[in-house]
Design brief:
This protein is an alpha/beta fold. About 40% of the residues lie in helices and about 20% in strands. Among the domains are: about 110 residues, no CATH class; about 130 residues. Strands 1, 2, 3, 4 and 5 form a 5-stranded mixed sheet that branches. The protein has a 5-stranded mixed sheet with strand order 8-7-6-9-10, sandwiched between helices. Strands 11-12 form a two-stranded antiparallel sheet. A hairpin with a 5-residue loop joins strand 7 and strand 8. Helix 8 runs antiparallel to helix 12. It is elongated and about 105 Å long. The two termini are about 25 Å apart. About 30% of the residues are buried.
Length: about 425
């Protein structure tokens, strides 16, 4: 096995028309960085002229007319930058009297970055890494990385005649250029797969977007899971005639837990004696009552005697009548949601209790307005867990990249990372 074969194989060069020169290896500095430089020659007998299309034979001839040197960036070798200094054969066509150069699949015309580097960057874009870090890793500019996104990945394809039976709607913090800085996320409610991302969540924009899909496709949707953002309800009623609305259970629990927590804070600020206790053990108040430990006794900070979790909670809620009443109705609602007991939930919401805090009264009023949709929530297993998980992934991607300048680029990276955009070129070298 020859040395030349080993070097070409190491560089993943399969073009048999490339031969290494006698002194093919050297080390050179480029902008203060040392690169391994491999020098080779590209030459062959061309079958035709790419300029005029003339087929070369005994009558139509050409001549070799020197070389043109090009420095082509290759993948790193042993963590060192590598450059292929390729001397391309120049030809002169006798038919059109024009010159042309030998070509190779390892690099595009008038380009100095090899296709294997471009392909490696295209694959790297699927990982949670910033484009700037990718550009540093492969020794190219950030603009080059952006161009590779456009050249190596297909544009998103939407099927206007299809929607899954269950959808999940949610929003996430987007780029500054987006209207309201919030973008709209659509997921398959059964599989959790992202369907599409819309630049803003305003009703007019969403109406225009869903109008792209056929009425037949929108009519097939049976259930849609949302949070308590009221424009979504208007949107669904107008665009999805057969869809029932489900309010995500997490947002319901979050609503009442926030009310209880605000009640605790308000009482805590006016009670110097129990300030530290109310501040330290707030998590126990939010914990479902049936999950509190009744058997494990220990000494708690701020308390003089041994107590259980239930004992700590009983002490805290008995500090203030309003806190106790608010806590009890919180636990009842929480248990009703957990056990999918709609009758019990409806009863507790309609039971007027003047002793609870204004925060909880406001939350109960909100829940009453969504009761028909909450009934669907308790009778169906679907939730927004998938879309919330996808939103967390998007937040991480955005944080790693330190933000994105445009929504188009932001969306492209999301779709690539979620394997929703397919590569145009599986192997270009």
């Amino acid at each position: 096995m020859s040395q030349e074969y080993c070097i070409l194989n190491l560089l993943n060069i399969e073009d048999k028309n490339i031969k290494l020169t006698e002194n093919f290896y050297k080390i050179e500095d480029f902008d203060g960085i040392k690169y391994k430089v491999i020098e080779g020659i590209l030459s062959y007998e061309p079958p035709f002229c790419p300029r005029c299309g003339c087929i070369f034979n005994k009558e139509q001839t050409y001549e070799k007319n020197g070389f043109k040197s090009s420095d082509i960036l290759m993948l790193d070798v042993c963590n060192h930058g590598c450059i292929l200094r390729l001397n391309k054969q120049r030809f002169l066509c006798h038919s059109c009297n024009k010159k042309f150069f030998a070509k190779t699949k390892i690099v595009n015309d008038s380009c100095f970055i090899s296709n294997q580097v471009k392909y490696a960057i295209a694959l790297e874009l699927k990982n949670k890494i910033s484009e700037k870090d990718i550009s540093k890793r492969y020794r190219v500019s950030p603009n080059t990385v952006e161009r590779i996104i456009d050249s190596y990945y297909d544009t998103q394809k939407l099927y206007k005649n299809y929607f899954p039976e269950v959808l999940s709607f949610d929003e996430f913090k987007s780029v500054k250029s987006a209207d309201g800085a919030m973008s709209f996320h659509i997921c398959d409610g059964k599989t959790g797969k992202t369907i599409d991302i819309v630049e803003d969540r305003k009703l007019n924009s969403l109406m225009k977007y869903f109008s792209y899909y056929t009425h037949k496709a929108r009519s097939k949707v049976k259930l849609i899971v949302i949070d308590m953002y009221s424009p979504y309800i208007s949107l669904i009623q107008k665009m999805f005639p057969n869809a029932e609305i489900i309010i995500d259970k997490f947002h319901l629990v979050n609503l009442i837990s926030t009310s209880l927590n605000k009640t605790r804070i308000n009482i805590m600020k006016n009670d110097k004696k129990n300030y530290n206790k109310l501040k330290r053990y707030w998590k126990l108040l939010l914990k479902p009552q049936e999950e509190l430990n009744n058997s494990k006794w220990k000494r708690w900070w701020c308390f003089d005697e041994f107590m259980t979790q239930s004992g700590v909670v009983n002490y805290l809620i008995n500090i203030n009548v309003q806190l106790k009443e608010t806590y009890e109705i919180y636990q009842t609602i929480l248990y009703s949601l957990k056990t999918n007991n709609y009758n019990q939930l409806e009863k507790v919401l309609n039971n007027n209790n003047n002793k609870i805090s204004n925060y909880m009264k406001k939350s109960i009023k909100t829940l009453k307005g969504y009761l028909p949709y909450i009934k669907n929530t308790l009778s169906n297993p679907y939730h927004n867990g998938f879309v919330e998980g996808n939103n967390n992934f998007i937040k991480v991607l955005k944080r790693i990249a330190f933000g994105f300048r445009t929504f188009r680029r932001f969306k492209a990276r999301i779709m690539i990372c979620k394997n929703l955009l397919h590569m145009k070129k599986a192997n270009a070298f």
